[in-house]
Amino acid sequence: MRRAYNSVLTLPQVSGCPQCGAPYRPHRVCPSCGSYKDRLVVAVKAQGA
User: Fold this and answer.
1) Where are the domains positioned within the chain?
2) With pLDDT > 70 as the criterion, what percentage of the chain qualifies?
C-alpha cells in the first residue's frame, strides 16, 4: 500500500528562459542569467573563471 503512491509522484516542470533559453523551473529566478519576468534580479558570476 505504501508503494502504490510512488506512481503518483511526478518530476518538476521545466520551462525555457525567455532571456537566454536555458531550462529553469517556473516562478523562480533563472540560474543561468539571473532574470525573472524580463528583469535582471540577481547578478550571476561568470562560470569557469
Assistant:
1) 9-49
2) 90
